[in-house]
């Protein structure tokens, strides 16, 4: 049975791809962060000097959730574009890009190598730019979905660069004991004696 697929069949085909790619990208990204103890709960990260414009921790969670959804949707559009020229090149660039993305957290948070992590972000920026150029020719919307990711990578590269500059000894930095803040009022002090 041959024939041209209807719009609803094409839409369902894309949705099947998206139902796999979006959760897969989100799961792998989350797993990378969780396994490397990324974020403000990491005692080494807390001990680092950070630039004044460093966002609070929740911003990273929200941003990466949105970005992983956009990456998954863009990937689904490329997968759905069977027969498109340069589709295999776009898929290879996606694979390299995601591998670099998922490698950044362990290098930065687990291995404490902010300098190498900065090199990874630089490679991610170049890779994302190349990916956008290739994907744009396959599906314009798929290329547009990558622009927020490129913008966030630029910001992340700036943060990573500043952390490297502010912490030249980051790789050997040992986090100190976490202070315990207990506030007592005068009545409590009287009860202690």
What is the CATH architecture assignment? Up-down Bundle
| CATH homologous superfamily placement | TspO/MBR protein
* Element-by-element helix/strand order: HHHHHHHH
Tally of discrete structural domains = 1
Structural class: mainly alpha
Question: What would you call the shape?
Answer: elongated
Please give the oligomerization state of what you see: single chain
Query: First CA to last CA: what distance?
Result: 90 Å
Overall pLDDT: 89
Q: Number of DSSP helices?
A: 8
Major β-sheet profile: none
Tell me roughly what share of residues is in helical segments: over 70%
Overall radius of gyration? 22 Å
**CATH-defined topology:** Ferritin
Low-confidence stretches: none
Number of strands: 0
CATH secondary-structure class: Mainly Alpha
Q: In percent, how much strand structure appears in the residues? A: under 5%
Q: Outline of this structure?
A:
72% of the residues lie in helices and 0% in strands. It is an all-alpha fold. The protein is elongated.
Can you describe what's shown?
The protein is mainly alpha-helical and 193 residues long. The chain has one domain: Ferritin (Up-down Bundle), CATH 1.20.1260. 72% of the residues lie in helices and 0% in strands. α1 runs antiparallel to α3, α4 packs antiparallel against α5 and α5 packs antiparallel against α7. The longest helix has 29 residues.
Topology (elements, then pairings):
Elements lengths: L6 H29 L7 H5 L9 H24 L6 H24 L3 H25 L1 H5 L2 H20 L19 H7 L1
Task: Jot down its keywords.
193 residues, Ferritin, 0% strand
